[in-house]
Amino acid sequence: MASLLESLGQFATPDMLAQAGKMLGIDDATMKQGLDVAGPLLLGATSRKATAPEGAQVLLEGLSRPSEANLLDQLTQGDIGGALRGLMHTNPLGNTAGDGIVNNLMGQGQRAVAQFVQDAYGFDIAPILGLAAPFVTGLLAQQVKNNNLDANGLTSLLKSESEGFAASNSELAGVVAGALDAGEKVVAEAEALKGRFTPSEWQSLLDAPVLAAGAVMFAAPSGPIGMTQELMAMSKVIIDGARGAAPASLLDSIGTTLRERSENVLNGAQPDDLKALLDISAKGGALEGVRKAATLAADKDAAARQHTRSFSTTSRTPRQRRRVRAVSSALARRRSAKKSRPC
Questions:
Q1: What is the pLDDT of residues 11-31, one digit of tens each?
Q2: Does residue 139 or residue 301 have the better pLDDT?
């Protein structure tokens, strides 16, 4: 029986590589090399996650979703274009389903993983990881279903697949291990940073961006749907700004958490803490919460103070400033149109 990585390679036909490369702006040769690296990276990250406490059970629950299986069905039936369009579809935060899978597997370490691969091979693996992730999870879901695997069975399968790959390609296996180690180091550093704050202090820092966004929204309320759209737009600005922060920094951690919160809202969740924060903003209490978080970060540690300053407009990159202006202008036009609309 073909291994998981061999099965992944069977889907990487010249036609699929060409169409995917065109969508991503990557040449065919780099696409082929990228998938050869992305598959083992995702397999390794999944295998490591399965060995964490409750990790295999969480993976098993995620593999029960039908979306990845539908993707494989489309490819088997020759609908490459339809499958790729589904893979490239982005939510209001600019993320694909594959990006979400990579984030669940690698967390804050994913940029360090990508940088390690770029140093080794000279290309950006990040967009190819997002493309390949649903394939890998889809193939795993097939194995789980066909063999009626439980959490222990899934862990054994992943271990066997990883060991088989390492035995057949030791050089690439070394790069994969190094990249995943680099990512885990960033995750550990982020946890160490979080440990400098009490749980309530940390929550105050995480709440500050939501309070700030709420203050802007309630300056001119635009109804439930409009407010959700504005919250997503402002969240995207903050999240995109955090992407340029140092890995494991305070801003990186806040951006990662805000992204997870926003993704949950897009998936239909209505968290009580978000409702409470927006209620505070509606009652005019947002500024106090933001000031509290800023003071906390500044007083706690010099590094935190530096990352707090990076929220300022003057320290944003030109691209980030353009994005902030674009979102602000769009919100202003929407409110202007609403006010001029006849009653």
A1: 888 888 898 899 899 999 999
A2: 139
Mean per-residue pLDDT over the chain, rounded: 78
Higher local confidence (pLDDT), 293 or 113: 113
**Domain segments of the chain as ranges:** 4-193, 196-340
Burial of 77 (0-12, 13-18, 19+ CB in 10 A): exposed
- Tokens 């550990």, residue? 188
User: Mean of the pLDDT values across residues 159-182?
Assistant: 93
Is the pTM value of this prediction over 0.70? yes
What's the 3-state SS for the chain?
Answer: CCCHHHHHHHHCCHHHHHHHHHHHCCCHHHHHHHHHHHHHHHHHHHHHHHHCCCHHHHHHHHCCCCHHHHHHHHHHCCCHHHHHHHHHCCCCCCCCHHHHHHHHHHHHHHHHHHHHHHHHHCCCCHHHHHHHHHHHHHHHHHHHHHHCCCHHHHHHHHHHHHHHHHHHCHHHHHHHHHHHHHHHHHHHHHHHHHCCCCHHHHHHHHHHHHHHHHHHHHHCCCHHHHHHHHHHHHHHHHHHHHHCCCCCCHHHHHHHHHHHHHHHHHCCCCCHHHHHHHHHHHCCCHHHHHHHHHHHHHHHCHHHHHHHHCCCHHHCCHHHHHHHHHHHHHHHHHHHHHHHCCC
- Better pLDDT: 317 or 56: 56
pLDDT above 70 (res 299): yes
pLDDT band at 320 (very low <50, low <70, confident <90, very high): very low
